[in-house]
Amino acid sequence: MSASATQRHLPLPEPDLTPQEMIRRAIALQPRLRAEQEETERRGVHSPALDEEFHKAGFYRCIQPRRFGGYEFDLKTFYRLAIELARGDASAAWGVILGAGHALMLGSFFDADAQAAAFGPDGEFSAPSVAAPTGTATPVDGGWLIKGTWTYASGAPYATHFMPSVLIPGDDPKHPGIGLAVIPRSQWKMLDDWGAILGMRGSGSNSIRVDEARVPLNHVVRIDMRNTDLAQGTPGARLHNNPMYAGRSLSFFHAELVSILTGLGYAAIDEYEKIIRSRDTIWPPFTPRYQHHHFQRTLGLAIGMVSASRRLALDAGDAYIEHCRRGCAGGAPFSLEDDLELFASLEHAGRLVWEAIEMLFRTSGSSGAKNGERMQRYYRDASMYRTHISAQYDTVALLLAQVHLGLANGF
Q1: Residue 25, domain extent
Q2: Which residues of the chain fall below pLDDT 70?
Q3: What is the CATH number of the domain that holds 159?
């Protein structure tokens, strides 16, 4: 680790930017995001012009370390940013938030030289990450040779880097090691294979192929993102003197997804209210739907369910930091059970929103299911969350119970 990297401090684009102003900017962009939903979905990713707005607003730098050009805001701010962007377009928010969020992984697990190289001279950084290790990292002279293809690399179109999980060959071919790599864009190719899917079509979740990337030794760290050993702390917590960079991955990642889904839930509520205010009941006595107790009850249930998810997602940011802070202060390290417990609670927050959106969809009328209707799009987008591997709450519940009972210590 070089002294220049540990002493480096990049200038911030807006040194006085506050979390409140960043959130205000996200809210202000909601009408434009909503207006461009159909075009974003058709393209497979939000427009270059919108991406420029996201950069100018500082969204990609929200939780990026301050010494490397980021604002280093807390996780609650980041999750609220996800909610507000997703209220405009969950598909676009998915790509932006997942691309920006992996600055936390880079800032936590890699040494100062690797961080300095990846964040670069101007602090412009965005990177998809794929947890499934469908490629390999093989030691070569002075570094690593990385090969493989990874699917669902959300945020790939505008990314500067890629951070995949990789298999590291060892003595036992049945049980290779697992690591996390950081690869500059010049050494990977984005495949044109996104869009032919039910929902989240504008998230830019293209596959990435790496033919023969060569990276320095410190650009691969030997950690399993499902169960990271924090007994010795992290390079990032020591470098940045911030416990936010001393955490795990499961609950952090799922809080991103639930925050996006929560914003989508609010978007569905907005659309439902628009529908019931503009249409009458179909049987006499004809009255505006919003004056009928059936639609009032449905709306009230949905508001309560989505608001509960919002509170759980934002509180998860505080709980995550408390686990990190305890470990940095010499207490018990942030454990797998801590991570799974937080993860499981977030899954139930996601389940609440999914059930709310499904209820709004089926009671809004068949006209809302037509192609081009926002309610149809919101239902399709929510379905993609529900089918995500990390949203299978019964699977995580089993592992949480096994870890809690001392019957398992990992995946």
Answers
A1: 3-109
A2: 1, 3
A3: 2.40.110.10
